[in-house]
Amino acid sequence: MINSLTDLAGDRPALVARLAAAFPGSVQGHALETAARLPIRGGRQAALAQLATIDPVAYATTRNHVGGAVTKLSPWIRHGVLALAEVRDAALARARVPEDATKLVSELGWRDYWRQVYAALGNAIRRDIEPPAMRRRGGQPLDHMPDDVLTATTGHACIDAFVRTLHDTGWLHNHERMWLASWLVHTRGVRWQTGADWFLEHLLDADPASNHLSWQWVAGTFSAKPYLFNRENLETFTAGAHCPTCPVRGRCDVEGTYDDLTARIFAPAGGSPDRPPLRISPAAPWRPGRDMARPRRPLVWLTLDTLATTSPAALAWPEQPRVFVVDPDWLAGERPTLKRLVFISECLAEVPGVEIHLGDPAAVLLARATALGCDGIAVADTPCPRVRRHADTLGGSLPVVVEPWPRFCRPEGVRDLGRFSRYWSKVGASALVPTAQQR
Ligand SMILES: Cc1cc2nc3c(=O)[nH]c(=O)nc-3n(C[C@H](O)[C@H](O)[C@H](O)COP(=O)(O)OP(=O)(O)OC[C@H]3O[C@@H](n4cnc5c(N)ncnc54)[C@H](O)[C@@H]3O)c2cc1C
């Protein structure tokens, strides 16, 4: 058990040192200093303080601007410290009429949508979902991140600033993520998976669904066309923060009209115009293991999707013991940096009595359930294939109960997840209904 991590949560430098010793693979570059200075704190208290600042009306008009009134809630939402329904309710409570919250709720809808696609496709989201909408000129894509990018020395002031912000804070504005991903994939020829994996290492809100599927959207392998930007677009939405002093101003990679950029980057007639409209059927509700009686004293399993006492499983079973397992497969696959481990530890520190273990989740949970006299496992619903696989294994020996999230929208009539617009046209109105009136 590695519970001493949460005992140190009030002392950032000590926590950072302890985590670095326990997880040496998470220490890259200036990881110790950046983790100690992290501007965001994990935990429900910090999440509620940030939630109290949201302004859905200002959000609607300024969200595309880097200095705009975005919520910055993503690290807590990603880890289930805040539920989408709860954020929707807060947005509605601050709106004069529900329509004032439409834009913010539809952005929450993107997260909901990506998670539905992840539940339907599982790890297949890591491969091209569709053939690329346009073929890039040049040879094979790069399957490593170029050194000048990693060291923020590309000479493009904007790109170098985005890289430094990502490395130092673990958070980027949505537009910065789009610009950085677009430049890497289309201009530098980096394989989108390579960029997506790099983001997962550094983002505090690192989430394979929102991340990999957004990279595919930028790359044009899960969208009608690849996402491009030019200098004018960047200057508009950054209030000219980077270009005036940029060493390559006037001759940079994104100088020109969209037609110029398209002709420069993509082969003529290089698209896949005959791509059939994509259809993705939603996944059936997740029910792990065999049919067994509902447990009466389950062990509550907190996963990366649910790092709070408000997790659906912890709320349903408030008196039962809670366990979080650090999965070595996750550490090896996602390579989270120290920043994220600090954030996760601070979240868990606010869960009274939680046990933290390192090891194979199914084996650890079975052993702890037996030792603690539990007759099953309770876990919050998740699209994560790793969690689902371990729950299926556990379901061979113990009842596993999946607790649902508070309802965000009504997806029951959805038959096709091929595009967000189609999904949202079916569920958008239901997402504007507050939780108290959802049935
Ligand atoms: C290349 C790329 C990679 C991304 N990787 C991630 C990731 O790993 N994790 C992640 O949570 N988001 C990811 N996003 C989506 C989005 O950029 C962030 O959710 C958002 O910028 C977080 O800032 P915010 O909380 O201020 O968002 P706001 O604009 O205030 O939105 C509120 C919440 O809605 C959700 N949301 C908003 N926009 C999106 C979107 N486009 N896709 C999914 N959810 C959205 C988030 O939960 C967010 O916290 C990625 C986007 C791109 C283009």
Key terms:
single chain; 439 residues; mainly alpha; Rossmann fold; Serine Threonine Protein Phosphatase 5, Tetratricopeptide repeat; DNA Cyclobutane Dipyrimidine Photolyase, subunit A, domain 3; five-stranded parallel sheet; 5 strands; globular; binds flavin-adenine dinucleotide
Topology:
Layout: H1 4-7, H2 12-22, H3 31-36, H4 44-51, H5 56-62, H6 74-78, H7 84-93, H8 102-121, H9 147-150, H10 157-169, H11 174-187, H12 192-202, H13 208-219, H14 231-238, H15 258-265, E1 299-302, H16 312-316, E2 322-326, H17 328-334, H18 338-348, E3 355-358, H19 361-371, E4 377-380, H20 385-395, E5 400-403, H21 420-431
Parallel strand pairs: 1-2, 1-4, 2-3, 4-5
The structure holds flavin-adenine dinucleotide.
Flavin-adenine dinucleotide binds next to helix 6, helix 8, helix 11 and helix 13.
